[in-house]
Specification:
Blueprint: E1 4-9, H1 14-26, E2 30-36, E3 56-60, H2 66-75, E4 80-83, H3 90-95, H4 97-121, E5 130-136, H5 161-180, E6 184-189, E7 191-193, H6 202-211, E8 216-219, E9 225-230, H7 231-244, E10 250-253, E11 258-260, H8 261-275, E12 287-290, H9 305-311, H10 319-332, H11 334-340, H12 344-354
Parallel strand pairs: 1-2, 1-4, 2-3, 4-5, 5-6, 6-10, 7-9, 8-12
Antiparallel strand pairs: 9-11
Helix pairs in contact: 1-7, 2-4, 4-5, 6-8, 6-10, 8-10
This protein binds nicotinamide-adenine-dinucleotide and thymidine-5'-diphosphate (TYD).
Length: 356
């Protein structure tokens, strides 16, 4: 069986922790090295079940630091990289775009350069190596209501500092492929939800606020549409693309599951109230319409046909099952929520909502 030494960046965050768990469990011959800076969004509790695995190494480091990335790639003889580390929250990108350019653009560039320098020196060169870049559907811009969906050939049209930084990083990955022959794959996924997501994103924020009887902020009129995918189905797609996807190819990942924000809010209220033993609809009065996000993209929708038809992927969890599992997880993990919603999180939250 194939042995690999895989560097996974951003593994202490939401999606990265699920990818690490999946790769360690499904591929017993792989060694996994995780690099994560443990920013406000990274939490070693997300990796507590794998941290003592002899095939797993955690290293706290900044992906922007080229020398450190070069050192780590050489020391662990890394042959594949799955790159997830990023600043990932649109609202934060509106307040501090420079942090997004630093981590998402310069960080990706440092990793690419460190990998290129190391791999070019190997006797076999780039042969058998892989830089897998995890990206977002937000690079494609925003859709009007209707049947249109983003495909792999939709022109890039990023509209927030977050999506502009992710688009830029995608371009650098493709540039390294074309210029230096770096073997790479990119996937662009729709909105994820599930356990371990930092509660600044819509779904965990709703659950946490319902738990504390705090207002549920709905931007604008709640009519923006997002296409939601359970995080383990994203991890499964990454696994499939990593192994079977074409080198140099891009795959869109999404579960054909579009929801208006206000409908998500009502669904999460109904499940959370039920699981908390509250009267049906008890938390509906917590809904609070607030000033819209600046430049708020109206609609995202992913066409996953290439991934489904060429690689045979399909989501395994229905939205109803996934949301139920997610609410159950957050209610059973109050301590996790309380730990991560202190300090820097609260400062940001107060800044964001003070003007509304
Ligand atoms: P997250 O914010 O939960 O986790 C990001 C992780 O990166 C954290 O552990 C953080 O500590 C780490 N990190 C940040 N800056 C770093 C740096 N300079 N050096 C090293 N580590 C650093 O994000 P997520 O939601 O898990 O997203 C992971 C990736 O997937 C991102 O690249 C994101 O753009 C992409 N993505 C996310 C979604 C989604 O819905 N969450 C959808 C599609 C794509
Ligand atoms: P979010 O989870 O931040 O993901 P993204 O902006 O990357 O799609 O937000 C999902 C949707 O929910 C988005 O349209 C913004 C909206 N939203 C709210 O209405 N209220 C909130 O408190 C948050 C965090 C988001």
């Amino acid at each position: 069986m194939d042995k690999r030494n895989i560097l996974i960046t951003g593994g202490a965050g939401f999606i990265g922790s699920h990818v690490i768990r999946r790769f360690l469990n499904a591929h017993p011959h792989y060694n996994i090295v995780c690099v994560d800076l443990l920013t406000y969004a990274g939490n070693l509790d997300n990796l507590s079940d794998v941290i003592n695995n002899p095939r797993f190494t955690f290293i706290k480091a900044d992906i922007v630091d080229l020398d450190r990335m070069s050192e780590i790639i050489a020391a662990h003889n890394i042959d594949s990289i799955i790159h997830l580390a990023a600043e990932s929250h649109v609202d934060r990108s509106i307040l501090d775009p420079f942090a997004f350019a630093r981590t998402n653009v310069m960080g990706t560039l440092s990793l690419l350069q460190a990998a290129k320098n190391y791999w070019e020196k190997q006797p076999e060169g780039m042969q058998g190596k892989l830089f897998y870049h995890v990206s977002t559907d937000e690079v494609y811009g925003s859709l009007e209501p209707g049947p249109d969906m983003f495909t792999e050939t939709t022109p890039y049209s990023p509209r927030s500092p977050y999506s502009a930084s992710k688009a830029s990083s995608d371009h650098f990955v493709r540039a390294y492929h074309h210029t230096y022959g770096m073997p790479m794959k990119i996937s662009n996924c729709s909105n994820n939800y599930g356990p371990n997501q930092f509660p600044e994103k819509l779904i965990p924020l709703l659950i946490n606020n319902i738990r504390h009887n705090k207002p549920l902020p709905v931007y604008g009129e709640g009519l923006n549409v997002r296409d939601w995918l359970y995080v383990e189905d994203h991890a499964a797609a990454i696994d499939l693309i990593f192994h079977n996807g074409g080198v140099g190819e891009t795959y869109n990942i999404g579960g054909l599951n579009e929801w208006k924000n206000i409908d998500i809010v009502k669904l999460v209220i109904s499940i959370t109230d039920r699981l908390l033993g509250r009267e049906p609809g008890a938390s509906l009065p917590l809904i609070t319409f607030v000033t819209d996000r600046k430049g708020h993209d109206l609609r995202y929708a992913i066409d996953p046909a290439k991934l489904c038809n060429e690689l045979g992927w399909k989501p395994s969890v229905t939205f109803e099952e996934g949301i139920e599992k997610t609410v159950e997880w957050y209610l059973a993990n109050n301590q996790w929520l309380d730990n991560v919603t202190s300090g820097e999180y609260l400062d940001f939250y107060n800044t964001l909502y003070s003007g509304r």
